[in-house]
Amino acid sequence: MLITALLLGPLTVSSRGSEPHRPVEEVRARMEHHLREGHELADHFERVLARDCPRFETPQAWRAYLDGEIDRVVLLMAHLEQAWIEAKRTGDDDVRRAAKAPRKRVDRAYALLDKLSGCAEDNGAPLSRMGVRRRIEREVPQRQSEIALPQ
Asked: Would you list the DSSP string of 74-128?
C-alpha cells in the first residue's frame, strides 16, 4: 500500500511518556486524516508501478517528472510521520497500531525506487538512489510542518 514508507524508516523518535494525552476519538480522527492522504498517494504510486515507464524527449523533461514524483514521496512520508505523531498523543494501542501499519510495506518502497531508477536510465538521466533518499530526508520535516493539523 504505502510506497516508500520504509525507505527511510522512522524519521522521528520520541518516548511514549513525553507526549500529551488527548481523547482517543480526537486523536483517531486526526491520525486517520493523514492516513487517508497517504493512502491516496500510495494508490498513485501503485499506478506508477503498474504502467510502463513514461518516455520524455529530453533528460530535463524526465527530471521534471521525477521531481514531481519525489515531491509526492516527500508528502507521503510527511503524512505517515504526522499520523504517528498524532497517534502518540494517546495511550490507545489500537490507534498506535493503525498509525504504524502502513510502514510495514518495505517491498513496495524498494520496488518503486527500482522502477524509477530503470525509467531514469531509459530516459538518459541516471538516478542516484542515495541522492533521492537524502533529498527525502531533508524535505520531509518541512513538509510535515506544512501539513500538520492545527492544534
From this structure: HHHHHHHHHHHHHHTTS--HHHHHHHHGGGG-HHHHHHHHHHHHHHHHHTT----
Instruction: Give CA–CA dist 4/9, Å, rounded.
Output: 9
- pLDDT, tens only, 112-144: 988 999 999 999 999 998 999 899 999 999 999
Q: How far apart are CA 19 and CA 91, in angstroms?
A: 10
**The model's pTM:** 0.83
Which H or E run contains 135? helix 129-147
CA dist., res. 41 & res. 45, Å (int): 6
- Chain-centre distance for alpha carbon 21: 25
Residue 43's H or E segment, with its range, is: helix 24-50
Span 57-103, pLDDT tens digits: 999 999 999 999 999 999 998 999 999 999 999 989 999 999 998 87
Q: Which cell numbers in the block locate residue 49?
A: 508501478
